[in-house]
Amino acid sequence: xxDVNYQRLKGTVDILPGEIEVWQKVEKIARDTFNQFGxxxxxxxxxxxxxxxxxNVGDTSDIVEKQMYDFDDRGGRRLALRPEGTAGTVxxxxxxxxxGPEYPKPYKVYxxxxxxxxxxxxxxxxxxxxxxxxxxxxxxxxxxxxxxxxEALQFFKQLGINDLKLTVNTLGDxxxxxxxHKALIDYLKPYYDQLSDDSxxxxxxxxxxxxxxxxxxxxxxxxxxxxxxxxxxxYSAKYFEEVKKLLDKLNIKYEIDSDMVRxxxxxxxxxxxxxSDSDVFGGGYVTVCGGGRxxxxxxxxxxPDEGGIGYGIGVERLxxxxxxxxxxxxxxYGPDVFFASxxxxxxxxxxxxxxxxRKNGVSADKNYQDVxxxxxxxxxxxxxxxxxxxxxxxxxxxxKFELSKVDSDQTQTVSVKEFEDNPTKFLS
Length: 428
Ligand code: ATP
Ligand code: MG
Prior knowledge:
The chain is α+β, with helices and mostly antiparallel strands. It folds into 2 domains: 20-173 and 233-328, BirA Bifunctional Protein, domain 2; 337-426, Rossmann fold (3-Layer(aba) Sandwich). Helices cover 37% and strands 21% of the residues. It has helices at 20-36, 50-54, 62-65, 86-95, 142-158, 174-188, 197-205, 208-211, 216-222, 234-249, 297-300, 315-325, 344-359, 373-382, 393-398, 416-421; strands at residues 40-41, 47-49, 70-72, 78-81, 107-116, 128-137, 165-170, 255-256, 268-276, 286-293, 308-314, 337-341, 364-366, 387-391, 400-405, 411-415. It has an 8-stranded mixed β-sheet with strand order 1-5-6-11-10-9-7-8, with helices on both faces. A 5-stranded mixed β-sheet has the order 13-12-14-15-16, with helices on both faces. The chain has a 3-stranded antiparallel β-sheet with strand order 2-4-3. The relative contact order is 0.11. Adenosine-5'-triphosphate is lined by residues 84, 117, 119, 124-126, 129, 131, 263, 287-288, 290, 312, 314, 316-317. It is found in: Cytoplasm.
């Protein structure tokens, strides 16, 4: 034994065959659903300049202040592993000038990939985790807000998850937040000494963060804080009314949570969360999708003064939910066909047939171990094929074999030649 540590890092996981099939199915359903709504894929780097996430305004959220993996590279550049997908997507949008007249408006993209946050690892909470997200850039229309929400809900529906709660709120425009900041600071001032150190520091920079504090005393203090809904500008009030009206039009049920602020500073106007109280989370509502509008972020990153809206879904948490709420979700079968062989002659033929049918459109495999036919059949069943066949000397001589359907006692005799030429014909 050496004392060198080769173990994977805390808060990271290996996703192995057996589980990967569930991931890939979720990813496929995501792609199909997002395509239906006009979204196309985007892949941005996993690391960016630190400022893409912190920006010169200084983001006061825990995610940016406390949870970022940021470091200096060998060239002395301040970098960060992305903690979320929106900032990098907006950076790419600006840098590639996707706001130009030749591009669709809104510019709708989705991403899926790893995010990094320095957190205390626990069930469904990791340091490298995965998000699937969508962004509709260059849009400022209540219709887009509702489309984005509808799309997220449709994605959950396609995964077989229906029992969800949608909460919405608005953080208003700049006029709203200036007025609300003032009202909130006025309210918080008398409690200043009782606030947590974080909240003391954030109160003047961004008092909204105090509303989102996890500290118990902070939470008691903010319980009676004024509501942002009383500070809405005319534009923001009208905008929010329109969003609610359109949600009603699409029969999307929602609750308004005027205390919701979300975990990043760039949010404006409509914000939302989709929550589940599935047993798999051990009681209470857990957020499985969070998103909102971020008018102002595009210009902060050097682009035009346009709005945008998007959401992110944590895939680890989503998989816990899917597997609990939709037990049939896990793919049941491995390859279409698996060959076991009874002897060397059969094994040779199986090897050739395998190659031909793979080239003719089916997924297939065979046993490669030199074991008795009984063990070969056991192995065949263990691989969960849809069909299997045992090939031996007799089958070689006759030029045909029995193709058995797993999970039923159905078998058919097929000619080797016909099966090689058109395997799908025999695999219903
Ligand atoms: P939470 O309040 O649970 O920490 P958050 O507000 O930090 O969530 P967002 O930044 O809105 O989360 O990210 C959206 C989703 O990403 C979350 O609902 C969650 O499913 C997932 N997520 C966030 N952090 C982690 C993590 N450390 N590990 C796994 N999933 C995560
Ligand atoms: Mg968090």
